[in-house]
Specification:
Shape: globular
Strand content: 35-45%
Number of strands: 78
Number of helices: 18
Number of domains: 4
CATH class of the largest domain: Mainly Beta
Helix content: under 10%
Radius of gyration: 32 Å
């Protein structure tokens, strides 16, 4: 149960309306069998179990937080007749066991079997052969009761069948030593110590102090907490011993689910626990010595806050276990606005103070990226992009291939009889004193969350399409535990779902219904183990087919939420009619290989047929392409920055604007023949030089700028170039940050002149007054007079987002720069919130044109006529692609002789979404005449009538902080939740307002078609999982085609959306035709896991290139190619602009040289070329050419 969302200092509150059982009705479409699943009525199945909750003044959700956590489902063939039977746990009613009689008909045998639940409040169901006698037993978790004697978990040992074929059971928890009384959610059996028998982990959820779960405080990590999970070791003699503390299971949590998997590929099973409320999830990694260590923060960037049902399963068929975890974010806008309070930025500080990892209110899909250079796997959370992040008050994820197309789909159970997170109720209750009002009358004021479940079809990777209606999930309910099983043995998976106050659901999968042609093939597999693990729990299976495709399965039927699925592994195969091979790995490493396996059958694999040993799946790459060389070069630095709360200035901002550095610039500043680099400083922190010596070692140096300068600004873009023509590199620093006051002198850029020895002095009179908050600076001889001029981009106007700030064209006159923007391009002065720029000849006329990206902008192209810059963007063919573009890099990616571009964008893994059909919109104006700009961002969300409409992204509390009048205009959260863009912005309000749209959020390849025309192509999905910032386009492998390196993430997104942190760094191999293939992290080794911003390439004295990535408030990352191809490097002169490389085989490559390229970065002007070069022709900015022989 959840209530963290409120984060208010009053008691945990919950409620239940007196519920009248709904009339059973089948959706019309399902009744006509037009949907994938058909909901079968109890009269048809014989399953009429209802988990009825009887509330009272003393027992209701206001005083018993977990009253609606529900019951589970257990699937197993208890009588050995080849049909899967069903056990349903009851809270205040008897649990039920139904014997499968075939043809989707079931018989209630509960009393005869002796498995009523013995008066317990039964929760999780674990179906397992505990004693190794070949008969499945049932371990039932118990909770809730105050009397510990009524809270002991139950172990029903299967005694076999009686003369009538009915299985009977004997309750034996005390005898086995596992009659735990700790408010259990779920027991999970697995062999953690490799002794051949099944041990027991018990997920615990005990709420003692109702205030505790929603407030940050020091964690209890010594095993003393009452809400600490338990671990019982199987002694091998029919008894268990509690080894919780000695095994290192010491961290408290309010557990909802547990998952078992070999997360790090060492052959030993690990434990993932999904915890409710403020407590973090837990990832207990098996130390292989009987102990575990929680390593959640090393493997994951963030998790769900109120994590509920969770499953570990390979979603995208890459052979690695991924994680799906449920939360409670609604899809419906009204529900969102009634649930989500202000952005609560203070939670970031509390998390850091008390040692919590980041958590967010939404479903999460943790995509396993494989083994990282840190020595353990890492996960990227991609729930936004996957399309599964908002399924309301969700309980159980059912992850399996329901349409047999070869990819695992997702079904979600959800619903709650009363919603205690409703902010209107919270406000009302606070007005009544907030304490002690726990009777049924108060319960009646709580909203009902009665919802249909969700289903999502896997699109063939890690994204999904909502198929809830098409698949037949249209019946509203309060659904908790659920399990999948092939109940009728027809080759598709059916569903059983345990409901509160309504009969349990049995959904028949109609995919293989007799009389309908089978469209997809399948295979199921049973495991026969040995000893006390006769079902081979902990085994794994890899199925190979169709030219290298694979599916991976780990054998642990207890999964999801309080439930146990069909023991048979299920594989959908689509149109595949033949399986090449199946590799089975048993828990002790023994293996067997099956070849040439037929489809559409159930096979049995037996441990006795195993031969030999196979190592666990190797997560490592034998020789990654890149390696971290920070130690080799002595490059160690962690930039410091004050964490400014931008939302105190404009509460409705979609993201921070003060957290975008640091920048990096490369150049030989001390003229010793070796390239150095500079890292920009944050406000109050000086920038740092890294000086390279003749051995390639770098020394950090903070003394090359005046120590007493006292400049309070924040460095953004930085650039080395010869400003005054004296033959050394000067330093331009763009200043400004959103945290500075509008028009502050601290935003003034600074030009530092080099004394020839690499020491710098500011020349304040060399620049005009420039109090705009800038982003990048780029140099080129745009006027053709022989010296380097500048473009300086404006990023943001302090306190007035999204007002376009001023950008500048600065013309060089012997080291003094003059603002010629109005003369050269008046439109450029306030062209937008510019994030990146390139001086690039996109039309091939030899002049440096200007290409821009920006927030709420389309890629912008300004043609250099020799007398000015002309904006031709409207005629390029891509003017409609407005986005939150961050960065640019250029190169001839399709080898056609002209310059193309790669543009980094927000990506698709965000709740800030914009498409041509559903654009994201921002309006801004001083609506309340207080002198402050009121900005509101709108995205399409589901309205009460089911239509998708533009609603504000900002919660009511934050909107009221920005405009106090909103409290009166929308006195309740409900009224605000119904307000669309048309309600908030009337026609009169829109007069003279700023308005921008975003229609394309994909990082993209911009193909130059010639004649000023371009085509835009989205990059592969791996490039869309987070915002892209720093990039480099270079031929990494020496095949003659440009490849891509990328870094990114944005930790400054508003707190409800949370850190966009899925990027780990990305290498993509180019094919020379504009296509790119992403390499897995273990193979590439290119790894920057933090809030990465800049990326620069520089040449070292060791005759190799290295890449340095900057990360906001995190360490620099330095990498090189482990085995670089044979290269030569071309030294450029200050005025060189383009390079044509001619190869001995007749091929030619056209390149450009930049003073600054990609986000806040400047790379080396030493140009790498492959070894088979014939000659090189270099052209300068004035059109002069020279030939060099590398």
């Amino acid at each position: 149960m959840k209530s963290r969302l409120l984060l208010r200092p009053f008691a945990l509150i919950f409620a239940l309306l007196a519920f009248t059982a709904s009339a059973w009705s089948q959706p019309k479409a399902a009744a006509q069998n037009k949907t994938l699943f058909q909901l079968l009525p109890p009269a048809r199945t014989g399953i009429n179990f209802t988990n009825k909750i009887f509330e009272s003044d003393s027992l209701n959700i206001l005083n018993q937080a977990n009253i609606y956590n529900g019951g589970g489902v257990g699937i197993g063939d208890f009588n050995h007749d080849g049909l899967q039977d069903i056990f349903l746990s009851g809270n205040m009613v008897s649990s039920k066991l139904y014997l499968n009689k075939g043809h989707m008909k079931f018989e209630d045998i509960t009393d005869r079997a002796g498995v009523t639940g013995d008066g317990r409040w039964c929760t999780g169901v674990s179906v397992v052969d505990v004693n190794g006698d070949g008969w499945l037993d049932i371990y039932v978790s118990a909770s809730f009761r105050k009397d510990a004697r009524l809270r002991t978990n139950l172990l029903y040992i299967n005694q076999g069948v009686d003369k009538n074929g009915i299985p009977t059971f004997k309750e034996s928890a005390v005898a086995y030593g596992i009659a735990d009384t700790g408010f259990s959610t779920q027991g999970i059996f697995f062999d953690y110590d490799h002794d051949g028998d099944l041990d027991l982990y018990i997920v615990t959820n005990q709420i003692n102090d109702p205030r505790t779960p929603i407030r940050f405080r020091p964690k209890l990590t010594d095993g003393s907490a009452l809400n600490n999970d338990r671990l019982y070791r199987n002694n091998g003699n029919g008894t268990f011993t509690n080894v919780t503390k000695e095994a290192g299971i010491l961290i408290e949590g309010w557990g909802h689910a547990g998952c078992i998997s070999d997360f790090n590929g060492d052959g030993w099973l690990d434990i993932y626990i999904a915890d409710d409320f403020v407590s973090n999830d837990l990832l207990y990694i098996n130390n292989r010595d009987g102990t575990f260590t929680d390593r959640l923060g090393e493997y994951f960037h963030h998790t769900g806050w109120n994590a509920m049902g969770t499953d570990v399963v390979d979603i995208n068929n890459d052979g690695l276990p991924d994680i799906v975890s449920m939360e409670m974010l609604p899809e419906n806008n009204l529900r969102k606005k009634r649930m989500l309070a202000g952005n609560e930025y203070y939670n970031y500080f509390n998390s850091q103070r008390f040692g919590y990892t980041h958590q967010y209110i939404r479903n999460v899909l943790q995509l396993n990226r494989g083994m990282s250079p840190d020595g353990h796997p890492v996960f990227s959370e991609v729930g936004f992009m996957a399309g599964i992040y908002e399924t309301d008050w969700s309980w159980c994820p059912l992850v399996a291939d329901f349409d047999n197309d070869g990819f695992r789909d997702l079904v979600v159970t959800n619903g709650l009889p009363r919603d205690v997170t409703d902010l209107d109720y919270v406000a009302y209750n606070s007005g009544q004193g907030g304490f002690g009002h726990y009777d049924l009358k108060m319960v009646d004021s709580l909203p009902i969350v009665r919802l249909p479940g969700y289903s999502f079809k896997n699109n063939g990777g890690f994204t999904f399409t909502n198929t809830s209606t098409d698949w037949g999930f249209t019946h509203p309910s309060f659904s908790n535990g659920g399990a999948y099983a092939d109940l009728d043995n027809d080759g598709d998976l059916d569903l059983v779902i345990n409901n509160i106050n309504e009969p349990a659901f049995v959904y028949e999968n109609t995919l293989n219904t007799p009389g309908r042609p089978a469209k997809s093939h399948w295979l199921s597999a049973s495991f026969t183990g040995v000893g006390q693990n006769l079902d081979g729990i902990g085994s794994s299976m890899r199925v190979y087919y169709d030219h290298g495709k694979q599916q991976f399965y780990e054998h642990q039927p207890c999964r999801g939420y309080m439930s146990t699925d069909d023991y048979r592994a299920h594989f959908g195969l689509g149109g595949v009619t033949h399986i090449d091979s199946i590799r089975v790995r048993w828990p002790d490493g023994r293996t067997q290989l099956l070849k040439d396996v037929s489809v559409d059958q159930n096979i049995t694999v037996s441990y006795r047929d195993a031969a030999g040993y196979i190592a666990p799946y190797d997560y490592h790459a034998s020789s990654p392409l890149f390696r971290n060389v920070a130690d080799n070069y002595g490059i160690h630095f962690k930039p410091q920055e004050k964490d400014v709360i931008d939302y105190n200035i404009q509460p409705a901002l979609p993201h921070k604007l003060s957290q975008y550095g640091p920048g990096i610039a490369v150049g030989d500043v001390d003229k010793n023949g070796y390239e150095d680099f500079y890292i920009g400083g944050a406000a109050g922190h000086k920038g740092m030089f890294f000086m390279q010596d003749e051995k390639g070692n770098f020394t950090i140096d903070s003394t090359r700028l005046p120590l007493d300068e006292g400049h309070p600004g924040e460095d953004m873009g930085v650039l080395f170039f010869d400003a005054d023509g004296d033959g050394d590199l000067d330093l331009y620093v763009v200043s400004g940050s959103y945290e500075l006051a509008p028009g502050s002198p601290a935003s003034q850029d600074i030009l530092y002149f080099n004394d020839g020895q690499g020491r710098f002095t500011p020349h304040y009179d060399a620049l005009p007054k420039m109090f705009s908050n800038g982003s990048c600076v780029r140099a080129a001889d745009f006027d053709g007079d022989g010296d380097l001029d500048l473009f300086v981009a404006g990023r943001v106007t302090s306190g007035a987002y999204p007002t376009p700030p001023q950008s500048y064209l600065l013309e060089n006159h012997s080291g003094s720069f003059f603002d010629v923007t109005k003369r050269w391009c008046p439109e450029l002065q306030n062209i937008g919130m510019v994030t990146d720029a390139l001086w690039s000849d996109f039309d091939g006329d030899g002049k440096p044109d200007l290409v821009l990206t920006g927030e709420w902008m389309a890629p912008t192209f300004l043609k250099n006529t020799g007398k000015g810059l002309v904006n031709i963007s409207d005629s390029t063919g891509i003017a409609s692609h407005k986005g939150w573009w961050n960065s640019l890099v250029a190169g001839d990616f399709d080898n056609d002789g002209d310059i193309d571009y790669i543009a980094g964008n927000l990506g698709l893994n965000s709740n800030y979404k914009g498409t041509p059909a559903e654009p994201m919109v921002v309006y801004a104006k001083d609506l309340d005449d207080n002198g402050l700009l009121d900005a509101m961002v709108f995205c399409y969300m589901r309205a009460e009538d089911g239509a998708r409409k533009l609603f504000p992204m900002t919660a009511r509390d934050d909107m009221a902080s920005q405009m106090i009048s909103m409290r009166k205009r929308y006195p309740s959260y409900k009224s605000y939740g119904l307000a669309t863009i048309d309600d908030l912005w009337k026609p009169k309000d829109r007069e003279n307002a700023l308005m921008f749209q975003a229609t394309d959020m994909t990082s993209s390849y911009i193909e130059n078609l010639g004649n000023g025309k371009f085509a835009i192509h989205a990059l592969p999905a791996e490039a869309q999982i987070a915002p892209v910032y720093g990039m480099d386009a270079v031929d990494i492998d020496g095949d003659g085609d440009l490849d891509l390196l990328m870094v990114g993430n944005d930790y400054g997104m508003e707190p409800y959306s949370g850190r966009h942190d899925a990027f780990m760094g990305l290498y993509m191999k180019g094919d020379g035709r504009g296509g790119f293939t992403p390499w897995p992290l273990p193979a590439s080794g290119f790894y920057a896991k933090g809030d990465a911003k800049g990326l620069a390439r520089l040449h070292t004295a060791r005759n190799e290139d290295i890449w340095v990535a900057t990360q906001n408030q995190d360490s620099l990352v330095t990498m090189h190619l482990a085995a670089p191809p044979v290269r030569k490097w071309i030294d450029l002169q200050p005025g060189d602009f383009s390079i044509d490389v001619f190869y001995v085989d007749g091929q030619k490559r056209h390149m450009e040289a930049y003073y600054g390229s990609t986000y806040l970065s400047q790379s080396s002007r030493k140009i790498p070329v492959n070894g088979n070069v014939k000659n090189v022709v270099i052209t300068d900015f004035r059109g002069n050419k020279r030939e060099v022989m590398p």
